Amino acid sequence: MIGMKKTCEGIKELVAGYDADKVAGISFGGQMHGLVILDENDKVIRPAILWNDGRTTKECDYLNNVIGKDKLTEYTANIAFAGFTAPKILWVKENEPENFKKIARIMLPKDYLAYRLTGYIVQMYQMLQACFCLMLRSVTGQTR
């Protein structure tokens, strides 16, 4: 994966000339709304679909008009937009069913890089909600 290679190169460059034993930690920031899908062996199934990919118009129309914006807002405090992660998952289901069947884990790109570097899977509620992948009602017991 190019992103992983470049991340490792960047970290090496960042700590070059410094005593690496004195580095206490590295923080991750990054784009939301991307989709990285992994199989049962944590191998990437297909290239990531990034936030600026607009292929999910049909899936957003389904979510907003068939499921309904009112229902979506009640459960997620959001409506579907083409850049969000959940419509990308539906796109994979519809257009790449062989890949969809292999999905064991779904991550945002920055969370995947952090996982590869640390071995820990960590995703923030705020990121999942903003990506349209978290039902607020199930977490809080209430809606906004």
Salient structural properties:
7 helices; elongated; mainly alpha; 144 residues; two-stranded antiparallel ribbon
Describe it for me?
The structure is a single chain. The chain has 144 residues and is mainly alpha-helical. 49% of the residues lie in helices and 4% in strands. The protein has seven helices and two strands; from the N terminus they run H-E-H-H-H-E-H-H-H. Strands 1-2 form a two-stranded antiparallel ribbon. Helix 2 (57-76) packs across helix 3 (85-95). The radius of gyration is 17 Å and the shape is elongated.
Low-confidence stretches: none
Please provide the ordered H/E string of secondary-structure elements: HEHHHEHHH
Shape: elongated
What number is the mean pLDDT? 84
Strand content: under 5%
The number of helical segments is 7
Measured on Cα atoms, how large is the radius of gyration?
Answer: 17 Å
Give the beta-strand count.
2
The major beta sheet can be summarized as: 2 strands, antiparallel
Distance between the termini: 39 Å
Compact overview of the structure:
The chain is mainly alpha-helical. The protein has helices at 2-15, 57-76, 85-95, 97-100, 109-118, 125-130, 136-140; strands at residues 36-38, 105-107.
Produce the secondary structure layout.
Layout: H1 2-15, E1 36-38, H2 57-76, H3 85-95, H4 97-100, E2 105-107, H5 109-118, H6 125-130, H7 136-140
Antiparallel strand pairs: 1-2
Helix pairs in contact: 2-3
